[in-house]
Amino acid sequence: MFQTKWLIVILLLFVQNNQSPEILWSETVKLTWSDFEGKPDANSPAAAITAAGISYNYSISKTNQNVTGFTAHVMTHFYPEYSWYKKEQVSPQILKHEQLHFNITELHSRLLRKALSTLKPSQDVELKIKALYKKANSDLEKMQRDYDNETDYSRDFEQQEAWEKKVNLHIDLLESYKL
Predict the structure, then answer these.
(1) Angle formed at CA 94 by CA 92 and CA 99, multiple of 5 degrees
(2) Residue 101 and residue 105: Cα distance in Å, rounded?
(3) What confidence tens digit (pLDDT) does each residue in 88-145 have?
(4) Half-sphere exposure of 56 toward its Cβ, with a 13 Å CA cutoff?
(5) Among 20, 104, 167, 172, which has the minimal tally of Cβ within 10 Å of its Cβ?
(6) For the chain, what percentages of helix, strand and coil (3-state, to nearest 5) are there?
(7) What are the structural domain ranges in the chain?
(8) How many whole angstroms separate alpha carbon 144 and alpha carbon 28?
(9) What are residue 37's phi and psi, to 5 degrees?
């Protein structure tokens, strides 16, 4: 039996505005303010918001009800239509801060790919895949929150630089888990 989980990807594609498709994370593509196409929230104290996330799909191979194998694919996305900035409040420093939010998302995609690579085919592999995805998102959310708090939303330049070094180092250490 072949089973594929595309629900997240399909839903994301459904809500996408055809004029602003998501941007997949890449070492060679850096965000620019023109990528932030959403309407700024006038009630938010934030100067900019990066909407980024992890999606995944997987398939499980079975023979006579026994799981014989599986594959999983993990992607890091930036969503232009949900990302925004207040032109009068932003700076190159804030753009670097927002880029690092996207990079932190990629870091957690790589950590998820690494965790998935350790799984063995089993009857409960689907539950294990879902649990790893849930944990990756929980860890991602915590790290994003810590990043904003410790850098004071980009205003603490020293902490911002320390976070950039830390995240880039971890991404480099997980080079074998990039797409």
Answers:
(1) 95
(2) 6
(3) 999 999 999 999 999 999 999 999 999 999 999 999 999 999 999 999 999 999 999 9
(4) 24
(5) 172
(6) 50, 20, 30
(7) 3-177
(8) 22
(9) -105, -5
